[in-house]
Amino acid sequence: MAFQNTKCECGHQNALGTVLCEHCGKPLTEENSSTEILEMRYDGVARKSQKANPGIIDRVWNFFSSVKIAVILIVITLIGASLGTIYPQESQFINLDASIYYKETYGTLGHIYYLLGLSHTYESWWFILLLVMIGASLVICSLDRVLPLYRALHKQKVRKHDQFLKRQRVVVDADLPEGIAGQEALEQIGSALKKKRYRLIAEDGALMAEKNRFSRWGPYINHIGLIIFLLAVLARSIPGWHMEYYAAFPQGTPQPIPDTSYYLQNDKFTVEYYSDEEMPEQFVEEGRIMPKLFETKATLFRCTADCDDPVKEPTLVEVAKHDIRVNDPLEYDGLMVYQYDFDLTPKLVAVKPVLKDASSGEVLGSFEVQMSNTASTYEIGPYTLELKEKYLDFTLDENGEPRTQSPEPNAPAFVFLVRGPGLEAHGEPYMYFPLQKDKLRFKENVLNKDIMQHIIIDVESMNDVTISDSKSYLNVRKDTALPWIWVGAAISMIGLVMGFYWQHRRMWLKLDGNHLVLGAHTNKNWYGLRHEVARVLQEISMEVDSKAIDRGGNKA
Amino acid sequence: MGKRNKVVQIAILAVILIIGGFAIVPSLLQSNEVPVVGSSVPNIKLQELNGDIQSLSDYKGSIMVLNFWGTWCEPCKREMPAMQSAWEKWKDKGVYIVGINYGEDALVVSNFIEKMGVEFPMWLDSKKTAAKAFGIRPLPTTFFVQPDGKVHAIKQGEVTAEELDAYLMQMIDAASS
After folding, report:
1. Which end of chain A has fewer surrounding CB within 10 Å, N or C?
2. Between residues A252 and A31, which one has the greater pLDDT?
3. What is the pLDDT of residues B54-105, one digit of tens each?
4. Cβ-contact A189, A537 below 8 angstroms
């Protein structure tokens, strides 16, 4: 190619890699005698990347400008993306030790999968690198072709070389019918073409007609859309642009949403089940329980102060309230909170017992004991209670020492040092079990035999017990790039429609005395084009067989 | 025409390189992952049992042992004496041992350490933020942190006195060489 003579016989100096002379359309690379259908891609102009002595920049450019490379990149990406679907991705788990999980669940193969990093395929450097390379390929492939093509279509010559006309796929090479003059014939054909919405350029004894050129830009507009789409996908790695967070929200406690200043509280969670009448008989027989509706009444807060303070409670301001149901998320400031799962195991939050005089039974007052962050002193009537020990899940170890066996308030026990009338001056201990089952199990009345002759601590009714009876599992999502993904997809769709539903049709006519040479080209739908040619020639009573003028072949 | 083309080419390639770099670098760094051996520890700020606010970054320059524990956890209880004797042995040699309690009340923690005879500092992770930042799963989990703030070793489960000594010796040797 390096020694190719790029100067056409018409005198035009073409760029290296040109297939058809930019000026007159004469084929430059083949023998003059050939009658094969011309290669009309990009109108025969040289692509930008076709250069004589490529430097490093050119080589990089040329690499990305290759459609072959683009296809290879896409295939590799597709394979990579499908590998990521073999096992669940790490990001889909709430709390997961990936180094153990894949081995335990899927065996050695799973472990290899994890070690290869396929458990986070879509966040891996090589996958993102592939996306970036596809993006580069899209940009460069497009620019490499669209600019020369634009130039070629922008300044087309009306009068083309005979070889250019005769080697089109649709060719009419015949004498005009008797009784019609050359110029008149061109005018009549012209007005027929105009009716078919062709744009005409006439020159002495030559005519060029063209329509729907814009459809040639369809693929490039499609590419612009894809590039925006890709950029939006890549933009998700900008901090704060993308979040997919799954967490449990116990009722009544605001929980921070990581990397934001927001806290979300599950105010109340309710679940409704299908009744037996509503379910298929088979399900009833199997004893299945099917949830019909689950709903979390949620409040979203913004933290305004003490957000990262290790001790102080954060200052929260309510910003939104919503009843979250499946497919009906809470939406605020780009955050979307979806219902995901639930857990109805009840959990003790606080008790509010009363202090009674043992002999008279008179209630001296009540006090609230929180299970977490328990206050250390309580004043009830004439008595002072000082919290000395606390066990959330009380048990006795092998030495008979009290200890807690879990951090959950399954069997809470509190040791208060009580001071007041009738008790010893330095105080007497009272071991209090809020739950009835524990009172019996650990013999509360025996442990507190002496002090219970003076006072009794007890809850009056279940109203004095605060129970968090639900944990709602919610999925917090944020996707700032999402609108851009839609924009990209929409532009890409516009480009596809432009390219698919319209065809760029051109006809070149040249008169030599009474002899007409017509070449016609389209980028698709040759059937339509050859019929159009036959139709307009009928205007001058020139009958051509639309099948005969199509020389077939597969070159667009 | 050639020169202008070259500038445009270089500009386009540069833009692709910059955007690509921004996209790929975070995935290489994995910045919001929990610390692993060799990575830097996140800065945590907690209240000590005595009421002081402590920040991990203030201890840069000392060898640290961060022991995450809870009173209900039997292996945590079993390893406490080993931690305590290591504290007595190494505290004057630039080693700082800290117990980080998983969300329990100060009263519960102080009762416990009194009973166990533990004297090394206790930080209270009352909001469980430190446990989250360190990606703590089973208790106890012990992080051995070098003076430069990098994780030297992570031990999940009970630490024996021998392991404790071995890790500390390694870090002291590395720091003095």
Report:
1. N
2. A252
3. 888 888 888 999 999 999 888 999 999 999 999 998 888 888 999 999 988 8
4. yes
User: Which range has the worst mean pLDDT, A205-219, A322-336, B122-136?
Assistant: B122-136
The CATH number corresponding to B45-176 among 3.40.30.10, 3.40.50.720, 3.40.640.10, 1.10.472.10 equals 3.40.30.10
Q: What residue type is assigned to position A249 of the chain?
A: F
Nearest to A469 by CA among A312, A251, A158, A296: A251
- Contact pairs from chain A to chain B, CB under 8 Å: 92
Q: What pLDDT is recorded for position A95? A: 64
Domain CATH for A522: 3.30.310
Tell me, yes or no, if A151 comes closer than 8 A to chain B by beta carbon: no
Residue A273 covered by a domain: yes
**Taking CB atoms and an 8 Å limit, are B107 and A389 in contact across chains?**
yes
From A62, which residue of chain B is nearest by alpha-carbon distance?
B9
Spatial strand order in the sheet of B45-48: B53-55, B45-48, B122-125, B95-102, B63-69, B141-145, B151-156
3-state secondary structure (DSSP) of residue B173:
helix
A56–B contact, CB cutoff 8 A: no
A125 and B27 in contact by Cβ < 8 A?
Answer: yes
Q: Which residues of B touch A406 (CB under 8 A)?
A: 72
ipTM of this complex prediction, to 2 decimal places: 0.77
Tell me: the pLDDT tens digits for A276-294? 888 888 888 887 778 888 8
pLDDT score at A74: 95
Chain B neighbors of A100, CB-CB under 8 A: none
Q: What pLDDT does residue A556 have?
A: 46
Does the beta carbon of A91 lie under 8 angstroms from any beta carbon of chain B?
no
Scanning the structure block, which residue is given the tokens 């490093």? A56
In the predicted structure, residue A311 carries a pLDDT above the cut 80: no
Neighbours of A327 (CB within 10 A): 7
Of B13, B24, B45, the CB nearest to A60: B13
Which of B111, B125, B141 is the best residue to mutate to test the A interface, defined by the most A CB atoms within 10 Å of its own CB? B111
Interface with B, mutate which of A63, A129, A410 (most B CBs under 10 A): A129
Please check the confidence at residue A69 and state whether its pLDDT lies above 50: yes
What is the pLDDT averaged over residues A179-205? 89
Low-confidence ranges of chain B (pLDDT < 70): 1-3, 29-33
Structure-block tokens of residue A86: 């073999």
DSSP labels for B27-91? HHH-TTSPP-TTSBPPP-EEEETTS-EEEGGGGTTSEEEEEEE-TT-HHHHHHHHHHHHHHHHHG
Q: Does residue A3 belong to the interface with chain B, where contact is any CB pair within 8 Å?
A: no
- What domain range includes position A419? 348-463
d(CA A160, CA A24): 5
| A413: in domain | yes
Q: Where are the alpha helices (DSSP H) in A84-97?
A: none
As a whole-number percent, the residues of chain A with pLDDT over 70 amount to 96
Domain count, chain A: 4
- Which residue ranges make up each domain of chain B? 1-31, 45-176
pLDDT at A423: 86
Residue A13 lies in a domain: no
CB A245 within 8 A of CB A262: no
List chain B residues with CB under 8 Å of A56. none
Q: Does A53 touch chain B (CB under 8 A)?
A: no
d(CA A263, CA A257): 6
